What does this fold into?
Amino acid sequence: MEGNMPRGLENIIALESEITFIDGEQGILKYRGHDVQSLSSHSYDEVSYLLINGRLPDKFELDSYSKKLKQERVIGDDAIAILKFCNFNIEAMDALRTAVSYMSHCDPELNDNSAEANVNKGIRMIAKFPTMVAVFSRQRRGLDVIQPDLSLSHGANFLYMLKGSKPTDLESRVLESDFILSADHELNPSAFTARTIASTLSDIYSSVIGGLCALKGPLHGGARMAVMEMIDEIGSPENAERYVMDKVSNKQKLMGFGHRVYKTYDPRARVYKQLAREIAIESGNMLWFDIAEKIEEIAYREFVENKGKPIYPNVDFYSAVVYKYLDIPPKLATAVFAIGRSSGWIAHCLEQYSDNRLIRPRAKYVGPDLD
Ligand code: CMC
It folds into this structure.
């Protein structure tokens, strides 16, 4: 605490929201009143509709919403060229923010801040993010761009555009669940950033780009890539003990562990662990899952049992294991997280615009007074 101010605004209630509920003591996460564990077996289209519209769609509403999303999947040759220009010295998140910024220039509704136009722009972003990420990655690897397949789900189509072959049913379901589990998390740093920008009545593209910039950081979405690299570095379950103990004795953070809000097991990590186990079994290679489970076991012994600190796996831990089995390159991990998170940012912006008051807190001045 600094004076009576919690550092990093810890536990400060900054606004009221009807989107996401978290109980960090009990490990409960709900979108619009629905437990995230039960939602993880729905489609991403249903859940993004839920976040944006406040309730699950009926069949007719879902068909029409999914159709709109599919129609918006394609990106133009100019956007493909922009993503190619980006391919010299930047990472996927930087390329994605550049491409979204370019996309906004081409949107005739850019400066129409009506609720209807903002929903339209939101649908365009949700639909085009996977195409942008896949196009960036394929061009970076010197491969041809693959056009979206409108017969596939949001998750399956992304894997198809990324790899060039149709995913298995399990791979499709796992990525669909990943997008759902990543879709929103109350007033996390990127949602707060997006809402702050929206509160100035800037456009929804600028707000979402702000969210992307915040997600990139290693203390937020960037941890997923770090966990993938950690699993590679450890290489086998036998090496996990020394790796974790080095981190503990050097007082370094173990990536994919700890959370500002959860003081118990992150409910998303529980679902991800099950998905990771299923996909490991299907692949016939348990290595990465076994390394992760060993890290978790040692971390529990050190943090929870020995030190009494509530540091458990967070959303980025087993999701990173899932990404390894899906053969998603580590450097793409945060951008894949952003594909799922896009609907949460859009829901937050829409809620902010619908009952706006400028977000403008104060700082306590502690510098010199020279005059
Ligand atoms: N490994 C080791 N110690 C940790 C960890 C960790 N991953 N996380 C927290 N601690 C310790 C920390 O050293 C501190 O100990 P002490 O009180 O002795 O100084 C105590 O726990 C509190 O840590 P903090 O950094 O003040 O806690 P915070 O609420 O500011 O941080 C966090 C939350 C997520 C930034 C932090 O847990 C962390 O850096 N984790 C690693 C990065 C990571 O996995 N990030 C993904 C977060 S979840 C996805 C998302 O929401 O985007």
